[in-house]
Amino acid sequence: MKREDLGDLTAFLMVAREQSFTRAAARLGTSQSALSHTIRRLEERLGIRLLTRTTRKVSVTDAGERLLARLVPAMSEIEAGLAELTEFKDKPAGTIRITTSEHAATTLIWPALETLLPDYPEVHVELSLNNGFVDIVADRFDAGVRLGESVAKDMIAVRIGPELRLAAVAAPAYFECNPAPKTPFDLSRHRCINIRQQSSGGLYSWEFEKDGREVRVRVDGQLTFNASPLIIKAAQAGLGMALIMEDIVAPMLADGSLLRVLEDWCPPFPGYHLYYPSRRQPSAAFALVLEALRNRG
Questions:
Q1: Which of 98, 155, 211, 277 ranks highest by number of CB atoms within 10 Å?
Q2: Which fold has domain 85-163+271-294?
Q3: pTM score over 0.70
Q4: 3-60: what fold?
């Protein structure tokens, strides 16, 4: 491979990821015209078109998709190899990028980082909050944090948190006007606060289980949110029932501002795991962060 090939391939990968010459040029620290020339030169050298350009969007051709399938893992290996060089320094250093949910970031990751990072000023951490599925290899994350049951099989997964439970709750004022449900099937007669899923855009079906029987219920109500703080506020205001992580509403259950129902239908389930590609050799900085999170499991 010629030296210019690597640079041209890097430019192509960035344009494909950003789907925009303007954003890709900004990420690469070059001009849009220079980047366009680089891509055109690569396409001429290969004798095939890799990108389709319109006034609004840049998309990848079938040939470009085939090249990306080879290029993304190769570039990830190169980046991992460069990250490993930080092990030769006196202290761990470098940036660790983690995709995680807001709940895991707040309850597990931040408490660990708050204690760890003051002693390691050369270690930088970027948290990207996203409740949906993320391809950590394609999106250049070092690791992801998700519930244990949703981690891909080809990843190394490390438990970093305890088992979790959901809690079906509502304000006392709500139950003064509405009889408490005895089973999940009673929810069809209740106003509920829906949850919009970030990954699919659909509404979350409330999940319950009892004696090995799993039940999913589609609920209805006036309100739909994709963030737990607003769900809690709406439930406390008596605007409907909510299904939310038990640890988030524990203070409200303790002070009586929320009441819990269907507790026997909400068993524990596997908690959060940190996962990363099995072929990647962790850097010293990554190993440090991993160990800090593992200790909270």
A1: 98
A2: D-Maltodextrin-Binding Protein; domain 2 (3.40.190)
A3: no
A4: Arc Repressor Mutant, subunit A (1.10.10)
